[in-house]
Write a structure and sequence with these properties.
- Keywords: Hydrolase, Metal-binding.
- It holds the Pfam family PDEase_I.
- Zn(2+) 1 binds at residues 214, 250-251, 362.
- By secondary structure, this protein is mainly alpha-helical.
- The chain has a single domain, classed as 3'5'-cyclic nucleotide phosphodiesterase, catalytic domain (Catalytic domain of cyclic nucleotide phosphodiesterase 4b2b, Orthogonal Bundle).
- Helices cover 61% and strands 0% of the residues.
- Helix 9 packs antiparallel against helix 13, helix 16 (278-293) runs antiparallel to helix 18 and helix 21 (370-393) packs antiparallel against helix 24.
- The protein is globular.
């Protein structure tokens, strides 16, 4: 009812603007929207976008020149005030960063867990219903050893262990993934990498989906794919580092808004990057600056190695822009079909395939078991809906994915995404690599299972589907998917 009122107000406001209504009339409409928004906040809480500071017809302000990097970075993290970027005050964050409700853990970890959830270090409880002692170091270490090795690892459960809560997902996963190659680069590499991981973790924002846990999860899946396809055999340790650090930081500083939104609102980031892969350019820039800012760490690389690390970070992160999805898939497909692809002897061909690997990892929740796929999908659409709420308040047109009132269309939209984006990508990976059996057995199997489940849940909302998982007390056993 109230959402319908807001939609009506927006339509009236748009009509008045088109007809050249006076400033007093437009101010009155803004006041009415504020009144409705206040009512929504009282009744719907954190699902409503704050509008006190939103000025629908104002352009984004310029960022002052000669700012120190820290201040400059903070100015660019969303390039707008936190309240305009989907960031919530402490009492509001929990509803958006934890789509599966309050955490229920043992050993008095609850208070800490709730606090770290607000940093985007978890998305809620695991839906596998296993009995887990989140304070147990033994259980934690058992799962940590599977990072980068087990595609079906319960990432959500791992993120809620006390040790991961204390250190954060980027640091926890990053250490696990980098330790083996760090020792091969320099004896002090792993020690000196700690500030790097902490800085990357710190610039992630507490978005429902594009948060630090997403960065850690993508890095984990990217390494599983690399290991399963045995691509690391053709890479140096420094190149492996570039691949992992790009995966960890591929969404660093993400404001929880899309490139299209930043362009439409004339966001400073859009002006800096000329409307082209805005966020991806920003993420890559942050990663490279963080690496360059630590002199003791930077000293581990020769000039040529650093240039190569930076080149690969930029190549990989820019490839995560979904607008260029088919370009990257077709780059590999064309070379494969004409017989010129030789990733074992041609380093540029190898990196074309590494691009597909990080892209598969970036949308990898689509290839997870259903009970893990749904929490991530719900988090993603909550982030979309927060943007859609703001677009509605700004009198901007809404796309299907961003309209909270059309959430029953999500299952059918997932079918289209599966057929148009996810399957062509992983099928190309299988076609180019002779070691694709692992991808078929686990990754594609999960994807087809999810496809059938989406068909069963056609026209149901994500909340309804998630509620079924939450209410089920059945322990869901998932086969380990260990890559050699």
């Amino acid at each position: 009812m109230v959402k319908g009122v807001m939609c009506s107000l927006v339509e009236i406001e748009r009509f008045l603007n088109e007809k050249g209504a006076g400033e007093d009339v437009l101010k009155a409409m803004c006041h009415l929207k504020d009144v409705v928004h206040d009512y929504q906040m009282k009744n719907f809480g954190s699902q409503v976008v704050p509008v006190q500071s939103i000025k629908p017809y104002s352009k984004a302000s310029d960022i002052p020149a000669k700012l120190p990097f820290k201040a400059f970075m903070e100015a660019l993290l969303c390039a707008c005030k936190p309240s305009e970027a989907g960031i919530r005050d402490d009492e509001e964050v929990q509803g958006t960063t934890m789509p599966f409700g309050d955490l229920k853990h043992q050993d008095g970890v609850d208070a800490q867990q709730s606090s770290w959830a607000k940093k985007g270090w978890t998305i809620g409880d695991s839906q596998r219903n296993e009995v887990i002692d989140y304070g147990s170091d033994e259980q934690f270490q058992c799962r940590l050893k599977q990072v980068g090795r087990n595609w079906n690892l319960d990432i959500v459960a791992l993120s809620n262990f006390k040790m991961c809560v204390q250190n954060g997902p980027i640091v926890t996963f990053g250490n696990a993934l980098l330790a083996p190659i760090g020792e091969r680069i320099h004896p002090d590499f792993n020690k000196e990498s700690q500030p790097i991981l902490n800085m990357i973790q710190d610039v992630y924002l507490p978005n429902p989906y594009h948060n630090a846990l997403h960065g850690a999860c993508v890095a984990h899946m990217a390494v599983v794919i690399m290991r399963a396809l045995r691509l690391s055999e053709y890479m140096t340790p420094v190149e492996e580092f570039a691949y992992i650090i790009a995966s960890l930081g591929h969404d660093a500083g993400h404001p929880g808004k899309t490139n299209a939104f930043l362009r439409s609102t004339q966001n400073p980031l859009a002006l800096i990057y000329n409307d082209t892969s805005i966020l991806e350019n920003y993420h890559a820039s942050l990663i490279c600056h963080i690496l360059r800012s630590q002199e003791s760490f930077f000293g581990f690389f020769s000039q040529q190695e650093w240039e190569n690390v930076r080149k690969r970070v930029i190549q990989l992160v820019l490839a995560t822009d979904m607008m260029s999805h088919f370009t990257h898939v077709n780059n590999v497909k064309e070379r494969r079909t004409n017989g010129s692809l030789d990733y074992k002897n041609n380093i540029e061909d190898l990196w074309l395939i590494m691009v597909l690997c990080i892209k598969a990892a970036d949308i990898g929740h689509n290839f997870l078991p259903w009970c893990d796929h749904i929490p991530w999908t719900r988090a993603l659409f909550e982030e979309f809906h927060i943007q859609g709420d703001e677009e509605r308040l700004l009198s901007m047109p809404l796309l299907l994915f961003f309209d909270r009132t059309r959430s029953a269309d999500i299952p059918d939209s997932q079918l289209g995404f599966f057929q148009g984006f996810t399957m062509p990508l992983v099928e190309e990976l299988i076609s180019v690599c002779p070691n694709g059996e692992y991808i078929s057995r686990y990754v594609i199997k999960n994807a087809y299972d999810n496809l059938e489940n989406w068909k069963k849940h056609s026209k149901r909302t994500l909340d309804e589907i998630a509620h079924d998982l939450e209410e089920s007390k059945e322990i869901i056993e998932v086969e380990d998917a260990l890559a050699d």
